[in-house]
Amino acid sequence: MISVIGAGKVGATTAAFLMMGEADSKIVLVDIVEGLPQGEALDMNHAAAILGRSVSVTGSNNYEDIRGSDIVIITAGLARKPGMTREELAAKNSEIISGVADQVRKNAPNAIVIITTNPLDAMVTVLYNRLKFPRNRVIGFSGVLDSRRMAYNASRYIGISPSSIIPLVLGQHGENMYPVPELSSVYGKNLKNFLSEEQYSSVVKDTIDAGAQITNLRKFSSNWGPAAGLLVMVDAIKKDRKTVVEASVYLDGEYSTRGIFAQVPVVLGKEGAEKIVEVDLTQEQKEKFNKSIEAIKSNLKQVPSQYLG
Ligand code: APR
To answer: What is the domain range of residue 251?
Structure first.
Protein backbone atom coordinates (compact mmCIF):
# COMPACT_ATOMS: atom_id res chain seq x y z
CA MET A 1 0.00 0.00 0.00
CA ILE A 2 1.25 3.48 -0.87
CA SER A 3 -0.06 6.65 0.75
CA VAL A 4 0.20 10.11 -0.72
CA ILE A 5 -0.25 13.00 1.72
CA GLY A 6 -1.56 16.15 0.06
CA ALA A 7 -4.08 15.88 -2.78
CA GLY A 8 -3.03 19.09 -4.51
CA LYS A 9 -1.29 19.28 -7.88
CA VAL A 10 1.74 17.13 -7.02
CA GLY A 11 -0.14 14.67 -4.80
CA ALA A 12 -3.03 14.03 -7.18
CA THR A 13 -0.77 13.72 -10.23
CA THR A 14 1.50 11.36 -8.32
CA ALA A 15 -1.42 9.15 -7.27
CA ALA A 16 -2.57 9.07 -10.91
CA PHE A 17 0.90 8.08 -12.17
CA LEU A 18 1.16 5.39 -9.48
CA MET A 19 -2.24 4.07 -10.57
CA MET A 20 -1.29 4.07 -14.25
CA GLY A 21 2.01 2.38 -13.46
CA GLU A 22 0.27 -0.14 -11.16
CA ALA A 23 2.91 0.65 -8.56
CA ASP A 24 0.65 -1.00 -5.95
CA SER A 25 -2.88 -2.38 -5.86
CA LYS A 26 -3.84 0.06 -3.11
CA ILE A 27 -3.20 3.80 -3.09
CA VAL A 28 -4.45 6.13 -0.35
CA LEU A 29 -4.67 9.88 -0.88
CA VAL A 30 -4.99 12.10 2.22
CA ASP A 31 -5.65 15.82 2.49
CA ILE A 32 -7.06 18.15 5.12
CA VAL A 33 -9.56 19.61 2.64
CA GLU A 34 -12.82 17.70 2.91
CA GLY A 35 -14.00 16.11 -0.31
CA LEU A 36 -10.82 16.86 -2.27
CA PRO A 37 -9.02 13.51 -1.88
CA GLN A 38 -12.31 11.60 -2.11
CA GLY A 39 -13.22 13.33 -5.38
CA GLU A 40 -9.75 12.80 -6.84
CA ALA A 41 -9.87 9.13 -5.82
CA LEU A 42 -13.27 8.58 -7.39
CA ASP A 43 -12.15 10.15 -10.66
CA MET A 44 -8.95 8.05 -10.62
CA ASN A 45 -10.89 4.84 -9.94
CA HIS A 46 -12.95 5.59 -13.03
CA ALA A 47 -9.74 6.15 -15.00
CA ALA A 48 -8.38 2.83 -13.68
CA ALA A 49 -11.58 1.08 -14.78
CA ILE A 50 -11.20 2.57 -18.27
CA LEU A 51 -7.51 1.64 -18.53
CA GLY A 52 -7.98 -1.79 -16.95
CA ARG A 53 -5.60 -1.09 -14.05
CA SER A 54 -6.06 -3.33 -10.99
CA VAL A 55 -5.61 -0.50 -8.51
CA SER A 56 -7.99 0.97 -5.98
CA VAL A 57 -7.53 4.58 -4.88
CA THR A 58 -9.02 5.72 -1.56
CA GLY A 59 -9.42 9.39 -0.65
CA SER A 60 -9.46 10.33 3.01
CA ASN A 61 -9.19 13.12 5.57
CA ASN A 62 -8.20 10.62 8.24
CA TYR A 63 -4.57 9.68 8.83
CA GLU A 64 -5.59 6.33 10.28
CA ASP A 65 -6.25 5.28 6.70
CA ILE A 66 -2.51 5.25 5.97
CA ARG A 67 -2.06 2.28 8.33
CA GLY A 68 -0.23 -0.54 6.60
CA SER A 69 1.59 1.72 4.10
CA ASP A 70 5.01 0.55 3.07
CA ILE A 71 5.70 3.86 1.34
CA VAL A 72 4.36 7.31 2.30
CA ILE A 73 4.86 10.23 -0.08
CA ILE A 74 4.45 13.67 1.50
CA THR A 75 3.43 16.48 -0.86
CA ALA A 76 1.49 18.55 1.69
CA GLY A 77 2.42 22.16 2.13
CA LEU A 78 1.98 25.67 0.92
CA ALA A 79 3.48 27.18 -2.19
CA ARG A 80 5.06 30.61 -1.72
CA LYS A 81 2.43 33.30 -2.22
CA PRO A 82 3.06 36.88 -3.36
CA GLY A 83 4.27 38.94 -0.43
CA MET A 84 5.28 35.90 1.63
CA THR A 85 8.92 35.80 2.69
CA ARG A 86 11.01 32.62 2.44
CA GLU A 87 11.16 32.58 6.25
CA GLU A 88 7.37 32.70 6.52
CA LEU A 89 7.05 29.86 4.02
CA ALA A 90 9.67 27.78 5.83
CA ALA A 91 7.93 28.37 9.18
CA LYS A 92 4.49 27.44 7.85
CA ASN A 93 5.67 24.35 5.98
CA SER A 94 7.77 23.24 8.97
CA GLU A 95 4.62 23.33 11.08
CA ILE A 96 2.70 21.32 8.45
CA ILE A 97 5.48 18.77 7.99
CA SER A 98 5.94 18.26 11.75
CA GLY A 99 2.23 17.56 12.09
CA VAL A 100 2.26 15.15 9.15
CA ALA A 101 5.39 13.46 10.57
CA ASP A 102 3.61 12.79 13.86
CA GLN A 103 0.77 11.10 11.98
CA VAL A 104 3.15 9.01 9.88
CA ARG A 105 5.11 7.97 12.96
CA LYS A 106 1.90 6.90 14.68
CA ASN A 107 0.17 5.18 11.77
CA ALA A 108 2.91 3.95 9.46
CA PRO A 109 6.00 3.48 11.65
CA ASN A 110 7.69 1.08 9.23
CA ALA A 111 7.15 3.08 6.06
CA ILE A 112 9.77 4.51 3.76
CA VAL A 113 8.93 8.22 3.54
CA ILE A 114 9.61 10.45 0.53
CA ILE A 115 8.91 14.20 0.67
CA THR A 116 8.51 16.82 -2.08
CA THR A 117 7.61 19.86 0.02
CA ASN A 118 9.79 22.92 -0.53
CA PRO A 119 12.19 24.30 0.51
CA LEU A 120 13.10 20.65 0.05
CA ASP A 121 16.43 20.30 1.83
CA ALA A 122 15.05 22.11 4.88
CA MET A 123 11.72 20.25 4.92
CA VAL A 124 13.32 16.81 4.66
CA THR A 125 15.49 17.81 7.63
CA VAL A 126 12.42 18.82 9.66
CA LEU A 127 10.78 15.52 8.69
CA TYR A 128 13.83 13.46 9.66
CA ASN A 129 14.16 15.19 13.05
CA ARG A 130 10.53 14.64 13.86
CA LEU A 131 10.09 11.11 12.51
CA LYS A 132 13.26 9.76 14.06
CA PHE A 133 13.31 6.99 11.45
CA PRO A 134 16.64 5.60 10.26
CA ARG A 135 18.17 7.68 7.50
CA ASN A 136 17.57 5.11 4.76
CA ARG A 137 13.81 5.57 5.26
CA VAL A 138 13.66 9.37 4.95
CA ILE A 139 14.24 10.63 1.42
CA GLY A 140 13.90 14.05 -0.18
CA PHE A 141 12.57 14.04 -3.72
CA SER A 142 14.83 16.18 -5.85
CA GLY A 143 17.54 14.66 -7.93
CA VAL A 144 15.48 12.46 -10.24
CA LEU A 145 13.87 15.64 -11.44
CA ASP A 146 16.94 17.88 -11.55
CA SER A 147 19.19 15.30 -13.19
CA ARG A 148 16.63 14.19 -15.78
CA ARG A 149 15.90 17.81 -16.60
CA MET A 150 19.60 18.19 -17.32
CA ALA A 151 19.56 15.05 -19.49
CA TYR A 152 16.57 16.47 -21.37
CA ASN A 153 18.26 19.84 -21.87
CA ALA A 154 21.46 18.21 -23.19
CA SER A 155 19.57 15.74 -25.39
CA ARG A 156 18.10 18.57 -27.42
CA TYR A 157 21.60 19.65 -28.48
CA ILE A 158 23.24 16.27 -28.97
CA GLY A 159 20.42 14.31 -30.60
CA ILE A 160 20.64 11.42 -28.15
CA SER A 161 17.72 10.27 -26.01
CA PRO A 162 17.74 11.64 -22.43
CA SER A 163 17.39 8.04 -21.25
CA SER A 164 20.83 7.25 -22.73
CA ILE A 165 22.45 9.97 -20.62
CA ILE A 166 23.60 9.35 -17.05
CA PRO A 167 23.30 12.83 -15.54
CA LEU A 168 24.74 14.19 -12.30
CA VAL A 169 23.37 17.13 -10.33
CA LEU A 170 24.60 17.49 -6.77
CA GLY A 171 23.84 19.44 -3.62
CA GLN A 172 20.87 21.69 -3.05
CA HIS A 173 17.46 21.29 -4.69
CA GLY A 174 16.93 24.88 -5.74
CA GLU A 175 18.72 27.74 -7.38
CA ASN A 176 22.04 26.73 -5.83
CA MET A 177 22.07 23.16 -7.16
CA TYR A 178 25.31 22.00 -8.76
CA PRO A 179 24.75 20.46 -12.23
CA VAL A 180 27.89 18.63 -13.36
CA PRO A 181 27.86 17.78 -17.09
CA GLU A 182 31.57 16.90 -16.87
CA LEU A 183 30.69 14.01 -14.54
CA SER A 184 27.70 12.99 -16.64
CA SER A 185 28.09 10.57 -19.49
CA VAL A 186 26.75 8.94 -22.61
CA TYR A 187 28.00 5.36 -22.29
CA GLY A 188 31.33 6.41 -20.85
CA LYS A 189 31.79 9.47 -23.05
CA ASN A 190 31.85 12.65 -21.04
CA LEU A 191 28.66 14.67 -21.67
CA LYS A 192 30.64 17.92 -21.67
CA ASN A 193 32.52 16.73 -24.78
CA PHE A 194 29.27 16.68 -26.76
CA LEU A 195 28.51 20.34 -26.00
CA SER A 196 29.93 23.63 -27.22
CA GLU A 197 30.79 26.12 -24.47
CA GLU A 198 27.62 28.03 -25.16
CA GLN A 199 25.49 24.87 -25.10
CA TYR A 200 27.18 23.76 -21.87
CA SER A 201 26.26 27.06 -20.20
CA SER A 202 22.67 26.91 -21.35
CA VAL A 203 22.28 23.25 -20.26
CA VAL A 204 23.47 24.24 -16.76
CA LYS A 205 21.35 27.39 -16.65
CA ASP A 206 18.17 25.74 -17.96
CA THR A 207 18.57 22.93 -15.42
CA ILE A 208 18.82 25.40 -12.56
CA ASP A 209 15.98 27.55 -13.88
CA ALA A 210 13.66 24.69 -14.94
CA GLY A 211 11.26 24.96 -12.01
CA ALA A 212 11.06 28.75 -12.25
CA GLN A 213 10.53 28.59 -16.01
CA ILE A 214 7.48 26.36 -15.53
CA THR A 215 6.08 28.56 -12.78
CA ASN A 216 6.64 31.75 -14.79
CA LEU A 217 4.84 30.30 -17.79
CA ARG A 218 1.75 28.83 -16.15
CA LYS A 219 1.75 30.48 -12.71
CA PHE A 220 1.96 27.29 -10.70
CA SER A 221 4.82 24.95 -10.03
CA SER A 222 5.77 21.64 -11.54
CA ASN A 223 3.69 18.48 -11.06
CA TRP A 224 4.25 16.17 -14.07
CA GLY A 225 7.98 15.83 -13.58
CA PRO A 226 7.70 15.22 -9.81
CA ALA A 227 4.96 12.61 -10.33
CA ALA A 228 7.03 10.78 -12.95
CA GLY A 229 10.11 10.88 -10.74
CA LEU A 230 8.16 9.59 -7.76
CA LEU A 231 6.82 6.68 -9.84
CA VAL A 232 10.41 5.74 -10.75
CA MET A 233 11.48 5.90 -7.09
CA VAL A 234 8.47 3.97 -5.79
CA ASP A 235 8.93 1.30 -8.45
CA ALA A 236 12.61 0.89 -7.52
CA ILE A 237 11.71 0.47 -3.85
CA LYS A 238 8.69 -1.82 -4.34
CA LYS A 239 10.52 -4.09 -6.78
CA ASP A 240 13.82 -3.89 -4.89
CA ARG A 241 15.48 -2.92 -8.15
CA LYS A 242 18.67 -1.38 -6.66
CA THR A 243 18.31 1.43 -9.20
CA VAL A 244 20.70 4.35 -8.81
CA VAL A 245 18.82 7.64 -8.80
CA GLU A 246 19.57 10.94 -7.21
CA ALA A 247 17.79 11.98 -4.03
CA SER A 248 18.30 14.19 -1.00
CA VAL A 249 19.60 11.96 1.75
CA TYR A 250 21.22 12.50 5.12
CA LEU A 251 24.97 12.63 4.66
CA ASP A 252 26.90 11.16 7.54
CA GLY A 253 30.46 11.71 6.38
CA GLU A 254 29.89 10.93 2.69
CA TYR A 255 31.13 13.70 0.40
CA SER A 256 33.04 14.94 3.47
CA THR A 257 29.72 16.26 4.78
CA ARG A 258 27.98 15.34 8.00
CA GLY A 259 24.52 16.07 9.35
CA ILE A 260 23.10 17.63 6.18
CA PHE A 261 20.54 16.43 3.62
CA ALA A 262 21.79 16.96 0.07
CA GLN A 263 21.20 15.38 -3.29
CA VAL A 264 23.62 12.68 -4.34
CA PRO A 265 23.27 9.37 -6.22
CA VAL A 266 21.75 6.61 -4.07
CA VAL A 267 20.85 2.96 -4.55
CA LEU A 268 17.09 2.51 -4.12
CA GLY A 269 15.75 -0.85 -3.03
CA LYS A 270 13.34 -2.40 -0.56
CA GLU A 271 15.09 -0.74 2.40
CA GLY A 272 14.80 2.71 0.82
CA ALA A 273 18.03 4.65 0.21
CA GLU A 274 20.26 1.64 0.78
CA LYS A 275 23.62 3.03 -0.24
CA ILE A 276 25.14 6.36 -1.19
CA VAL A 277 27.29 6.40 -4.31
CA GLU A 278 30.24 8.68 -3.69
CA VAL A 279 31.49 10.20 -6.93
CA ASP A 280 35.16 11.24 -6.95
CA LEU A 281 35.35 15.02 -7.17
CA THR A 282 38.33 17.19 -8.09
CA GLN A 283 39.32 19.99 -5.72
CA GLU A 284 37.41 22.50 -7.85
CA GLN A 285 34.31 20.28 -7.96
CA LYS A 286 34.50 19.82 -4.18
CA GLU A 287 34.50 23.57 -3.76
CA LYS A 288 31.39 23.91 -5.92
CA PHE A 289 29.70 21.08 -4.02
CA ASN A 290 30.54 22.79 -0.72
CA LYS A 291 29.12 26.06 -2.00
CA SER A 292 25.83 24.28 -2.68
CA ILE A 293 25.95 22.78 0.82
CA GLU A 294 26.39 26.28 2.25
CA ALA A 295 23.15 27.28 0.45
CA ILE A 296 21.36 24.38 2.16
CA LYS A 297 22.71 25.57 5.51
CA SER A 298 21.36 29.03 4.86
CA ASN A 299 17.95 27.53 3.95
CA LEU A 300 18.02 25.76 7.30
CA LYS A 301 18.51 29.11 9.03
CA GLN A 302 15.01 30.05 7.80
CA VAL A 303 13.48 27.18 9.79
CA PRO A 304 12.40 28.02 13.37
CA SER A 305 14.79 26.27 15.74
CA GLN A 306 12.11 24.16 17.48
CA TYR A 307 11.81 22.08 14.26
CA LEU A 308 15.50 21.31 14.07
CA GLY A 309 16.15 19.87 17.53
N1 APR B 1 -2.18 17.27 5.68
C2 APR B 1 -2.56 16.91 4.42
N3 APR B 1 -2.61 17.77 3.39
C4 APR B 1 -2.27 19.05 3.63
C5 APR B 1 -1.85 19.50 4.90
C6 APR B 1 -1.84 18.56 5.96
N7 APR B 1 -1.47 18.90 7.19
N8 APR B 1 -1.58 20.83 4.80
C9 APR B 1 -1.79 21.19 3.52
N10 APR B 1 -2.21 20.12 2.81
C11 APR B 1 -2.58 20.03 1.39
C12 APR B 1 -3.39 21.21 0.87
O13 APR B 1 -4.73 21.13 1.28
C14 APR B 1 -3.21 21.04 -0.65
O15 APR B 1 -4.26 20.26 -1.22
O16 APR B 1 -1.43 20.02 0.57
C17 APR B 1 -1.86 20.28 -0.77
C18 APR B 1 -0.79 21.05 -1.51
O19 APR B 1 -1.19 21.14 -2.83
P20 APR B 1 -0.83 22.36 -3.81
O21 APR B 1 -1.11 23.64 -3.10
O22 APR B 1 -1.52 22.09 -5.12
O23 APR B 1 0.74 22.28 -3.98
P24 APR B 1 1.55 21.33 -4.97
O25 APR B 1 1.77 22.02 -6.26
O26 APR B 1 0.95 19.98 -4.97
O27 APR B 1 2.99 21.27 -4.25
C28 APR B 1 3.13 20.64 -3.00
O29 APR B 1 5.41 19.97 -3.35
O30 APR B 1 6.81 20.37 -5.16
C31 APR B 1 6.44 20.79 -3.89
O32 APR B 1 6.89 23.18 -3.89
C33 APR B 1 5.89 22.20 -3.88
O34 APR B 1 5.95 22.44 -1.48
C35 APR B 1 5.11 22.21 -2.60
C36 APR B 1 4.57 20.76 -2.53
So the answer is: 143-303
